[in-house]
Specification:
3 copies of one chain form a homotrimer. The first copy, chain A, is mostly helical. Chain A has 8 helices and no strands. The radius of gyration of chain A is 17 Å and the shape is globular. Chains in contact: A-B, A-C, B-C.
Chain lengths: 213, 213, 213
């Protein structure tokens, strides 16, 4: 498997994760199958669409429609599968699946933006963050949830760290692109999973908010 | 009247419907005339703007500014006219006018996307749905309402059905484009109106949500 | 200082104002430094990004990355500085800083859109309004606040007036561009500040909403 196939696979896996996260995020709402599919697709395609508009390249799902089919199928499977999980577990599951999605999308976006040499060196990192969290923000806004960005646990920081690591790999060790992309995905997910599991938060002096008094 | 004039007319009527729906949706808010006009224009132009950005064509209202004038005038008329309707009727009226808007915008978008041969055959349907529901989603988010997509009544399905019918007409019966577009608009509105009137919902097994227990 | 430097400065000052407003708007939320920076950048860059996408020109912060650095630094300074203000003053401060931002961004956008001769004569005014209020709307939606547009005090009208004045200057008195841009910024901020300070509202007959009965 060459590097191009690898990033294609990473992108597809990201689509699945985000589409599933959207459906899980609506588990308590009385929406129908088709609404679930529409929201799954918007969530899966949203961040990348914004990225491609800013990059001024054709929107990815118009070039390769497999992206759409994958998110449609993933949404349908999640629609029928979510009830196998206990109600109280759904929210944790939602957070982890979202975490997988941001890891995959962040790194795939860095790869695409880097190959277009857009606004180097920070452009790929910025668009990596936008792509990773964009779809989820749209999902949370449309379903009326508070956005994950507003939670106290680490959310954007893991993406920043992973994308920066991958940019360093691309710049200084281009021969290690394949292994570098996998490790970067793992870094993001590991930090984010720790944040979810252990309620990992930044220290007080790095947090906003007046003290209760 | 040739087919070009007809789709132009359909587009304009859609602008009116969405601008009016935005103003009706704010009937309980204490906003001023100009805010109503701004929100009317954003709602009327929002979905089509996203469509044109994805299509990578000049945004429609920059090419033909009549679209703007029509939505401005429609917003003003709705601003002064809505009080002729009883308070308790306003919400139903809002839903029906929104239903007219999604019917017209869905079909007009399919027409435009088809003529640009974008991502055939599903591209026109996808962008039809995005155009039809996009402006309304922006309206609901900006005015702080739960989006219509999250309601249990059929919302996106009618647009999917109507747009698919119209794509079939364009593909297999191009000679019937004019009558086909009118029938497709009617199909979307008829299903949506039935959904509003009779609280038409999909069967339980096609609906999300854990049972209360 | 020539006119180009002046509008550059106006744009940069606008970035600072919007980034700071985003951080102030989260003063009660328990977010971390990096989330604050991400939201500061999205708020500062959001309106202009939408403007540039509609204009079909490269997004401004990809061409000149100083815009990004300025909003990052401004966000960090605001993150550590906001506690010097009393809790009950923060909200007023937020409104004024936002008011500075919309004044600067509105006029800078008119300038850019005018120089691209986009959809004259109303194009610059429309995109001036979109740029001025766009970032703030995104900020309010992401942080879960009701948007400032929905408040009863004048919000979009000052921008309309100032942008219109500046368009008249550009059309009929191009020799007075520099002084005209400064005066137009001042007009927007003066009206908006009066609206905040004196709860300036439009007369009843220009306001929506059924009477309480």
């Amino acid at each position: 498997m060459d590097i191009e196939q690898l990033t294609y696979l990473i992108g597809m896996a990201g689509m699945v994760a985000f589409a599933v996260s959207a459906v899980l995020g609506m588990a308590e709402k009385k929406v129908d199958l088709f609404t679930a599919v529409v929201l799954g697709c918007i969530t899966a395609c949203g961040g990348g669409t914004v990225r491609d508009l800013i990059l001024a390249v054709p929107v990815f799902w118009s070039v390769d429609m497999n992206y759409l089919w994958v998110s449609i199928v993933a949404s349908i499977v999640a629609f029928y599968g979510y009830k196998f999980f206990e109600r109280k577990r759904i929210n944790k599951l939602f957070l982890y699946v979202d975490g997988i999605g941001i890891s995959l999308f962040g790194i795939q976006a860095v790869d695409k933006v880097w190959s277009h040499a857009f606004a180097l060196p920070v452009g790929p990192i910025i668009l990596g963050i936008i792509t990773a969290i964009g779809g989820g923000l749209i999902r949370d806004i449309l379903t009326g949830r508070p956005t994950l960005l507003m939670k106290r646990e680490l959310y954007a920081i893991p993406v920043l760290i992973g994308c920066s690591v991958y940019v360093l790999v691309l710049e200084y060790m281009p021969g290690f692109q394949a292994i570098g992309s996998i490790i970067s995905v793992a870094i993001i997910f590991a930090i984010r999973a720790a944040a979810i599991r252990k309620n990992l938060e930044v220290p007080q002096w790095l947090t906003m908010g007046y003290k209760r008094s």
